[in-house]
């Protein structure tokens, strides 16, 4: 009985330490990525573009390109990359569009919000990376150390469950 109790205590302590190490790793990875963001913004004069990708379980897929110049969103482009499962009567101008400065945010479909990377990192820290007992958190930095995936999935959710962002690409925006 004493051995069983010792084993249970050992497993509980080990699990606690392991979860703390995981939390610390995630925090360190986020902190490092945030430092990489600061360096990236300096090297690009805070002018860049990034592509957010999304898809549903039925195959519908889209991309939103956000262009930032000197720290300000100046353009948002949206297009469906796979229209399987989309109604046939969708107007062509809703399948692909571009918003410029004064019109940014005027389309309200599934396009990514017109956010700067600073705003995305803030949202990541304040919303997406918060430890939840009922969810699995995802954080990846496959864009040269910058966020590529950040968000969470509620345990037991079946379809289109990811809450967060998938950034396919981030690159400097060269002014014309």
TrEMBL record:
Protein name: Lipoprotein
Superkingdom of source: Bacteria
């Amino acid at each position: 009985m004493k051995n069983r109790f010792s084993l249970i205590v050992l497993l509980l302590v080990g699990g606690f330490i392991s979860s703390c190490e995981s939390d610390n790793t995630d925090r360190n990875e986020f902190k490092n990525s945030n430092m990489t963001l600061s360096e990236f913004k300096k090297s690009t004069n805070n002018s860049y573009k990034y592509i957010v990708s999304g898809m549903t379980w039925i195959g519908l897929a889209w991309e939103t390109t956000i262009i930032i110049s000197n720290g300000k969103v100046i353009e948002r482009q949206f297009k469906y990359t796979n229209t399987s499962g989309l109604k046939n009567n969708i107007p062509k101008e809703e399948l692909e569009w571009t918003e410029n400065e004064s019109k940014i945010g005027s389309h309200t479909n599934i396009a990514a919000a017109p956010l700067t990377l600073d705003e995305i990192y803030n949202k990541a820290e304040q919303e997406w990376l918060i430890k939840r007992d009922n969810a699995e958190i995802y954080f990846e930095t496959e864009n040269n150390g910058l966020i590529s995936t950040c968000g969470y999935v509620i345990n037991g959710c079946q379809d289109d469950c990811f809450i967060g962002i998938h950034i396919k690409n981030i690159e400097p925006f060269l002014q014309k």
